[in-house]
Design goal:
The complex is a heterodimer of chains A (about 110) and B (about 120). By secondary structure, chain A is an all-beta fold. Chain A is built from no helices and eleven strands.
């Protein structure tokens, strides 16, 4: 089955700096890669996603890149702000009933 | 956007009792729903896929006789934790894709289960 690995587990950056979180997936049939932000005790919030027919997608300060050959995808947050502090999860989903498998998560701290 | 609700939002029960958690899609029909469990400071672990009109599909290591799933209608799936024990205490979240053509998931708000 699908396996998603995520690094780093913890990331601390200074306000205004960039943050990068990386994930790899194992199932070459996966074709949808969402990123979620989760605050304590809340449901995951979709912040950006990318499909396998696209290599890069950007939404304001957030961008995601996908390398299908290497089975890598990354989240880039620029000009980080304290309110970006949260846990971020990458995930992968394929055509097999849209089952979504999550990475282990990255706890991001943005220091003011 | 599509809305998924869960009930209850939290529940405390005694060891040995059973607890039922409901997941509803409020403005769309969902032939498939997913159940996740999240322990503190850990990721969402997929437990099972709930299929309307057929049996649920469980992930490896998840006991189907302990976690009973019933997809009663196109808008409702229930997860029953039978004979709950303290180690079952966790955050349970359901999700559903809003259609059959897209993978995007809409998540319920989660249910915090505490077993004493």
């Amino acid at each position: 089955g699908e396996n998603v690995e995520q690094h780093p587990s913890t990331l601390s950056v200074q306000e205004g700096d960039s943050a990068v979180i990386k994930c790899t997936y194992s199932d070459s049939a996966s074709n949808y890669f969402p990123w979620y932000k989760q605050e304590l005790g809340k449901r995951p919030q979709l912040i950006i996603d990318i499909r396998s027919n696209v290599g890069e997608k950007k939404d304001q300060r957030i961008a995601v890149t996908l390398n299908k050959t290497a089975k890598h995808f990354s989240l880039h947050i620029t000009e980080t702000q304290p309110e970006d502090s949260a846990v971020y999860f990458c995930a992968a989903s394929g055509t097999g009933g849209f089952k979504t498998i999550f990475g282990a998560g990255t706890r991001l701290f943005v220091k003011a | 956007g599509a809305v998924v609700s869960q009930h209850p939002s939290w529940v405390i029960c005694k060891s040995g009792t059973s607890v039922k958690i409901e997941c509803r899609s409020l403005d769309f029909q969902a032939t498939t729903m997913f159940w996740y469990r999240q322990f503190p400071k850990q990721s969402l672990m997929l437990m099972a896929t709930s299929n309307e009109g057929s049996k649920a599909t469980y992930e490896q290591g998840v006991e189907k006789d302990k976690f009973l799933i019933n997809h009663a209608s196109l808008t409702l799936s229930t997860l029953t934790v039978t004979s709950a024990h303290p180690e079952d205490s966790s955050f349970y979240i359901c999700s559903a894709p809003p259609g059959t053509k897209h993978n995007e998931q809409f998540f319920g708000p989660g249910t915090r289960l505490t077993v004493l």
